[in-house]
């Protein structure tokens, strides 16, 4: 693949390949940056099956109310493990609920697009995804959403407690494991901000950004998507419980019982992913 060399500074600034959405605060020499990108483009390859999965995840989460209008994004690590497919932003998009595979952009972990997609760029917060993929090799999918329940519970100081057991064991486990909170409500546009958030998140699969939203990861995007749904359910139940007064957590004996159980072999998120895929089609 060949790209014409930019002829003037204005053209450089218009180039969709001009560096990342996430600022690092340093100027990289243009020639070196072009060479660097060329080698990444040579290695990076658009994966249309993965683009479909990313688009479906966006639509499922949007229809469930975890995304508002055009903000928030989902990504999946590419098979080459050095690039990602991420929801694009710009005049060619119509919001999360209408996301289609052609709205998904192949990008490097710095948030720089590795392909031309007219009217689309990577999100300003693409560094959330890229820095997570760099820091945690086990991660295959990332969801960054703005669910109203999380915004409310985090601002009201409502702790997400295990107030149910068998009703939804996956949601209960999230509460029992503890849900880290990142205190800043600012959008995360710089690598430095994301590193602060990663410190708060530790090795957890979820992080609540107070007054902002959530970051949820999984071994696959399907897993991250289902986990985000479970986290939202947990927040919905705790929000409703807070309006009822004193709703206790389940007993320590029950928690120990659940944690002592070995998870059923071969159980995966696949049935739930299929369920939500079917539900999305019909809604
Ligand atoms: Zn955000």
Give the tags.
283 residues; alpha+beta; L-fuculose-1-phosphate Aldolase; seven-stranded mixed beta sheet; globular; binds zinc ion
Quick overview:
The chain is an alpha+beta fold and 283 residues long. The protein has a single domain, classed as L-fuculose-1-phosphate Aldolase. Helix content is 43%, strand content 11%.
Give an overview in words.
The protein is an alpha+beta fold and 283 residues long. The chain has a single domain (48-282), classed as Class II aldolase/adducin N-terminal domain (L-fuculose-1-phosphate Aldolase), CATH 3.40.225. Helices cover 43% and strands 11% of the residues. The protein is built from 10 helices and 7 strands. It has helices at 9-14, 30-43, 48-63, 126-135, 148-156, 169-177, 191-201, 221-244, 252-260, 270-282, and strands at 73-77, 83-87, 104-108, 141-145, 181-182, 206-209, 213-218. It has a 7-stranded mixed β-sheet, sandwiched between helices. Strand 5, helix 7 (191-201) and strand 6 form a beta-alpha-beta unit. Helix 3 packs across helix 10 and helix 4 packs across helix 7. Mean pLDDT is 87; it is low at 1-18. The site of zinc ion has 6 residues, from loops. Residues 125, 144, 146, 187, 212-213 line the site of zinc ion (ZN).
